[in-house]
Amino acid sequence: MISKSKLKEMLELFDEKIGRKKSELNYKNPYTFAVAVLLSAQATDKSVNIATRELFEIADNPKSMLELGVEEIKRYIKTIGLFNAKAKHIVELSETLLEKFGGKLPKTRDELMTLSGIGRKSANVILNELYGLPTIGVDTHVLRLVKRLGLMGDEFDTPEKVEMELERIIPSEYKPFISNYLVLFGRYICKAKNPDCDACYLKKFCKVKKF
């Protein structure tokens, strides 16, 4: 387990190198962010931003999205993986928002998780991005890096276990930002297949040490 002093040093380096950035997904309002998060499952943020550029211009609320319908939504998002299922999720999510939430995106994790295509990780990302809550979204980057950086051991082998442990060890000041730190570090520096060890500013913490 990482010591408190080393953890503090790591977080300060993240803060210096990455900063307290927001999501790289483009969106116009809370509803479009939820749709973008839904689409980002097993897809890159870049591919989602390309697909939603035109979609969000003509449908940026549940009513207008439902008016498009599944087949038309597919036409806009067909470059994204699993687009057939995701188009159906978007329609179902929009229906639920109109029927149960007055067309507004709810602000609790339990309520968000009642929306089609929104699981715990996505709900945490939404709450963190839109409402500034210290919820922690655990994706594949986070799962990989908590081990690689020595934040926790192999027994933390599920997203929920990792989330709970990060909740426990990360100081409150950094909780709203830890997900983005790890996601962006994993996306641009410590990549799964070809990590850029020469550019890595966290070498001293690395448990793989390929450099």
What would you note in describing this structure?
The protein is mainly alpha-helical and 211 residues long. It folds into 2 domains: 4-21 and 136-205, Endonuclease Iii, domain 2; 30-131, Orthogonal Bundle (Endonuclease III, domain 1). It is 56% helix and 0% strand. The protein contains 10 helices and no strands. Helix 8 (140-148) crosses helix 10. The longest helix has 18 residues, at 83-100. The protein is elongated and about 55 Å long.
The name CATH uses for the topology of the largest domain is: Endonuclease III, domain 1
Largest sheet: none
Overall radius of gyration: 18 Å
Cα end-to-end separation: 23 Å
Shape: elongated
CATH class of the largest domain: Mainly Alpha
Q: Could you give the order of the helices and strands?
A: HHHHHHHHHH
Q: Strand tally, please?
A: 0
Instruction: Let me know the CATH homologous superfamily of the largest domain.
Output: Hypothetical protein, domain 2
CATH architecture of the largest domain: Orthogonal Bundle
